[in-house]
Amino acid sequence: MLELLQNNQPSKAYSITTIIEEGLKLHKLGALESAAELYHLALKKDPDNALALQLTGVIAGQLEQLDLSIALLSKAIEINPKCAEAFNNRGLVLKKSNLFERALSDLDQAILLNPLYVEAFNNRGIVHRELGAYKQAHLDFTKAIQLKSDFVEAYNNRAGLYLSQKLYQKALNDINKALAINSMDPTSNWNKSLHSLALENFRDGWELYEWRWKNLSNIGRPLHTAKPKWSGEKNKRVLIWAEQGIGEEIMISSILFDAIEVCEMLVVKCDKFPSSIIFKDKNHPVDESSYDFHLPMMSLPKLFRNTKKSFTNTKHPYLHCDAQKVKAIRAEILKGQSVKLVGLSWHTDSKIYESKKRNVNLIDLVKLFSGTGTTLVSLQYGDMASIIDFVEKNTGQEIIQYNKIDNKNDIDSLFALILACDQVITIDNATAHFSGALGVETHVLLPTTADWRWGISSNKSYWYNSLTLHRQDQAGNWKAALKSLAYKIKNKRPRI
């Protein structure tokens, strides 16, 4: 089979079946490009080979070539409309493309063609969950488990569904069943970590959080170094390095002060943002000879935040910026008026699972300030002009876009803009972390699928003492959260 790849020509000595089988071996090993070459060789022999088309489409989907993947899988289905696997695979790509209704239709068809198709039931459950159809999702995951009692992925998916519904004991039961089947499964251990952290069982949660390196694809690459990981040894030179987004960096920075007290020297390699600590740019190398130990940033809580009480060690606020710059921005926006200034952030483009459920309609926030004389300013980054224009026309409330600041790339100035506000209202995004670390009164709107870091029911954050949390009481329904928010913000007076 090596000669086929080297010559890039189908050999008459090999049948299409053999070529595809060899491609599948490479595919299962993760050698996607080599597998794709063999599938292409099969297609040169027979351009209408439905299996080769399907497998080529699967690889295109794995490589994020979603339009190509859908086209190839559609052609495979056109040639063989009785192939349940092709419908399942196209359904997965449609889901990845956020075309959930079309994905659901394909998965329905896959199950119709094969009523015992375990993976299709599991995948349909995932789509139902994305659509907020929790009852149908539960039925699908349960059916998959009934068909395959050792289906670890289905147990984990049903556990995730239970977590979304705040059914914590049921979630834990499913996670433990998955771990009983495979104690080394990364997803099961990761889910148990999130479950433990959400319930404030920090010691176990942080220990299991180390499974993130085997489960998550969006946390960056581990640092390549010969130096050992730091486990709290005193009077050492320690390098702390960023692994996730700037929101996590800001959040964990609250623990750096604990680390400084026991280190001879602390170097932090991360995104640049203002602080009393000096940071190294994460894109630049740090000489190994300059440190004795290293640690990824999200492993710091394992050393310093093992109880809820330990979070009270944080010194608030722990981020600062130029007071004169703050004063100048506030004066320019308010133009001498003695009115309240409120910053708004309502949207995230995060690729994290279910993150879109965090987003709030801007018009619903703006209506809370109708007739109050409050000045509103956007803290959102990106081009929001059309959305803001629509809301202004439909509410009569101006929303200032302070265009002197690039809210995405000029973090120093964004911090000053946040500090210029009397209050900040935001969803769960980086703004919540920025505002909390700066000590600004902040109100965070949370969906039922809120991240572990916000706990399960409290209206206060143990990470930031200036935050108040407002939670959905029903999936997809912001009414209760907005009512809670309206009550909390109504009596806030502008600062002099």
Give a description of the structure.
This protein has 496 residues and is of the alpha/beta class. It folds into 3 domains: 2-202, Serine Threonine Protein Phosphatase 5, Tetratricopeptide repeat (Alpha Horseshoe), CATH 1.25.40; 237-313; 323-489, Glycogen Phosphorylase B (Rossmann fold). Helices cover 49% and strands 9% of the residues. It is built from 22 helices and 10 strands. Strands 7-6-5-8-9-10 form a 6-stranded parallel β-sheet, with helices on both faces. Helix 15 (246-262) links the parallel strand 1 and strand 2 (265-270). Helix 3 (32-45) runs antiparallel to helix 4 (50-62), helix 12 runs antiparallel to helix 13 (202-209) and helix 17 crosses helix 20 (411-419).
Topology of helices and strands:
Layout: H1 2-7, H2 16-28, H3 32-45, H4 50-62, H5 66-79, H6 84-96, H7 100-113, H8 118-130, H9 134-147, H10 152-164, H11 168-181, H12 186-198, H13 202-209, H14 212-215, E1 237-241, H15 246-262, E2 265-270, E3 279-281, E4 293-296, H16 300-304, H17 323-334, E5 341-345, H18 362-366, E6 375-378, H19 385-395, E7 399-400, H20 411-419, E8 423-427, H21 430-438, E9 442-446, E10 467-471, H22 479-489
Parallel strand pairs: 1-2, 1-4, 2-3, 5-6, 5-8, 6-7, 8-9, 9-10
Helix pairs in contact: 2-3, 3-4, 4-5, 4-6, 5-6, 6-7, 6-8, 7-8, 8-9, 8-10, 9-10, 10-11, 10-12, 11-12, 12-13, 15-21, 17-20
